[in-house]
Specification:
eight-stranded mixed beta sheet; six-stranded mixed beta sheet; 4 helices; Metallo-beta-lactamase, Chain A; alpha/beta; about 30% strand; 14 strands; about 280 residues; signal
Length: about 280
């Protein structure tokens, strides 16, 4: 497991001020007030179920699993975000914003569609962390960098977690995460309502490390991705079941609303290819 790079003092000092409620999935909502970064507002408790519907209200967003690590997030205002946009798995429409978490052939495009208004790469070819904070209509996309394994060593800031904010929701795509998130990362992320998590257990973070990270983040909804086979997905679900409810959407798309997120942390499996 690779390690996290120390954060700048401004962010690291914030991390020291928060407690890690590690044993319970309480998340990091208490950090928001102390964090000068403009992150999502505190979560409102809500009951109810996720629903499927064609039209989107202002407090709703559509999430579609395209395959592998690619999702399409669509806002009520007509803005769309494709995660891990690449040359192998793409949505059936040109997104407004395309994110690419790391420079790996199945996670980025060498020739993104020129009609995409914003192409956000999760690494900086010139070195140092990539920094993105883009607002288009009713959508904001920002990133938090993490590190990746490289042989027996570590490559710093080579992966990005992209956070899509719309309809009062904070949807975090964990990208090709290789290490457990530290308090500094959680402070930078702010509240996470929905986590899109790689669960292959080998190419990215191991299974127990991913479960630990998700419990630290405290999302109410986790959508698995990057699992390569149904058997591998089922192994992850079994390991996570003591900590999360398990649900299956029976479809590739779901409509999300903050006040209808499940009360107990839940893993929701969307239909579609996982490779």
């Amino acid at each position: 497991m690779t390690s996290a790079r120390p954060f700048p003092k401004r962010i690291a000092s914030l991390a020291l001020a928060i407690g890690m409620a590690f044993a319970a999935p309480t998340g990091v909502a208490a950090q928001d007030a102390a964090d000068p970064l403009r992150n999502c507002p505190p979560m409102l408790a809500g009951l109810g179920s996720l629903i499927h519907r064609a039209a989107l209200a202002e407090d709703e967003a559509a999430l579609t699993f395209v395959g592998h690590a690619t999702f399409l997030v669509e806002s009520a205002g007509g803005v769309s975000v494709a995660t891990d946009y690449n040359d192998y798995v793409r949505p059936d429409r040109v997104p407004t914003i395309a994110t690419m978490n790391r420079a790996h052939r199945t996670h980025f495009s060498v020739a993104p569609d020129p009609a995409i208004a914003h192409v956000l790469r999760g690494w900086n070819p010139e070195g140092g962390p990539a920094e993105h904070d883009v607002e288009v209509g009713d959508v904001r996309v920002r990133n938090v960098t993490t590190n990746t394994r490289s042989g027996m060593g570590t490559e710093y800031d080579e992966n990005s977690i992209f956070v899509v904010e719309t309809a009062g929701l904070c949807i975090a795509h964990l990208g090709h995460l290789h290490h457990v998130l530290e308090p500094e990362h959680l402070v930078a992320l702010g509240r996470v309502d929905v986590a899109l998590a790689p669960v292959d257990g080998s190419y990215t973070l191991d299974t127990q490390g991913m479960i630990e990270t998700l419990r630290r983040m405290g999302p109410r909804l986790v959508v698995p991705m990057h699992f390569f086979s149904q058997g591998r997905l089922e192994q992850f679900l079994e390991a996570a079941s003591p900590h999360f409810e398990i649900a299956r959407a029976g479809a590739a798309s779901v409509i999300l609303s903050r006040d209808r997120l499940p009360d107990r942390p839940t893993i929701l499996v969307l239909d579609g290819p996982g490779r």
